[in-house]
């Protein structure tokens, strides 16, 4: 315990004084709860000795005793909730010592050098941060949330490490970053600070219990006590952090500056990897199985593009911190699944509609499938809006071609020049693609499709186009139709269809059953997209499908931007502004010039599933 004392002498008198201030709030709350009982005792004693005989004192004493009993009852229930309510525990991947003996050895060596207690355990989080977390609360043991040495009363806190750090940082850099975090175990063991932290966590848990169960008489006083001790609690944590940082000054101080630069770079690359690469896969019912390995590629690419990050990739020849793990691939897969749960709300386990995908299969199984699902949804919306007063006539001015209606769910053979059938199957195909379910196959599926095709073959295309073609999309969005009511109606239809599919996926079937109706991301990555953004995304998907089917293009993946279109092996990044000209201004000429240069046949039906 000498390390604790020295830390307190080095700069935490303020932290301890703030902890005592928090505890004084608790003492005052207890005094207020006991005040009616104390007054009742005085009145009863005075009545017993004859000092308050006669008059209204008998009634007053009875009322005060009743109030005191009620206050004691409510105070006892409130105290029990504060003591027994389970504080929030960050979802993490536990890392046993057998799974990472070298990492445990490194952390214990840090603790020995700084003369502080070592953390009781190590866990990983799919985020670019590291901290200490107390898991000794009795409610955690009762609920089975925590187990092992970290749950023993009085045990040191758990060290939580951001998993991207292990794959991107070198061993020496990780050691430098963890030094001030590990040093925080010293102040955490101080009785006053530990008691104050436990009181604040209990109040926070009581507020949650009160809000979830509608118990305002528990939540209101808990919030009041939190407000009264908020400033002192925040200053206590600042003092603890300052003491830990001061304690870690002698451990790899020079390297820590470089390591902190890597923290910022890791955060930037990790954010791009999640929002641009992982999120499209999660929406398709797939989760990348090795996000942490992917962050190395993403950050290497970021270093190549950003001149401020030049030279960082030269570190890659040194030993990576993930070498401290016995089975990095297994740990990477577990943290990748946890990331999907935290940032997207996916199920806790894999299933038919929620399966892992390797990076090598990402272009074919995610990018191509995403484009064709969105193209199918776009044509479904066009079908729904088609009518005498709906979509405009085709380029030739015809009101109907007499051919089969446009299909959002058909599969047109390469080189087919006529429209694809099965318009009424569009919604089913789009929903199947969005939920990750395959289109029905086999004898029953074939018979059903044949029946649908026969029933729909005689229906004319009311908008003047036959088949799921890019020309149909260009014609419908050209001129006033693209920038007026039709564009707004189409954007609104896509938003409604997508929202309906997401609700259906969360309540029925497949991933919905595994996910459950309360499965929402704890940390959403992006706000809801606008209708115009969705329309632009779907038009882009249709263009990419047409380029793949008729111009020899291919789906690809960029580590920082996610799905991309490859033409001749090179990424084409000049498509987005041309699509915006069509969607926002109704001007198809820039996009038509781009398509013509690539040799894309806009009249050729595309494969949508």
* Class by SSE composition: mainly alpha
Task: Classify the oligomer.
Answer: single chain
Strand order of the largest sheet: 1-2-4-3
Q: What's the end-to-end separation, in Å?
A: 66 Å
Largest sheet: 4 strands, mixed
**Computed CA radius of gyration, to the nearest angstrom:** 32 Å
Low-confidence stretches: 1-10, 388-463, 507-517
SS field, number of helical segments: 23
Mean pLDDT, all residues: 80
Number of strands: 9
Approximately how much helix is present in the residues?
A: 55-70%
Overall body shape: flat
Considering the chains and any ligands shown, give keywords for the structure.
9 strands, 609 residues, disordered N terminus, 3-stranded antiparallel sheet, 60% helix, flat, mainly alpha
What does it look like?
- This protein is mainly α.
- The protein is 60% helix and 6% strand.
- The strands form 3 sheets. It has a 4-stranded mixed beta sheet.
- The longest helix has 36 residues, at 13-48.
- It is flat.
- Mean pLDDT is 80; it is low at 1-10, 388-463 and 507-517.
Would you spell out the secondary-structure blueprint of this structure?
Elements: H1 2-11, H2 13-48, H3 57-84, E1 93-95, H4 101-114, E2 122-125, E3 130-133, H5 138-143, E4 158-162, H6 163-168, H7 171-182, H8 185-188, H9 191-213, H10 216-247, H11 253-283, E5 286-288, H12 291-305, H13 328-344, E6 355-357, H14 362-385, H15 426-435, H16 442-456, H17 470-477, H18 480-483, H19 485-507, H20 511-515, H21 531-551, E7 554-558, E8 562-567, E9 570-571, H22 576-585, H23 589-598
Helix pairs in contact: 1-2, 1-10, 2-3, 2-9, 2-10, 3-9, 4-7, 7-10, 7-11, 9-10, 11-12, 14-15, 14-19, 14-21, 19-21, 21-22, 22-23
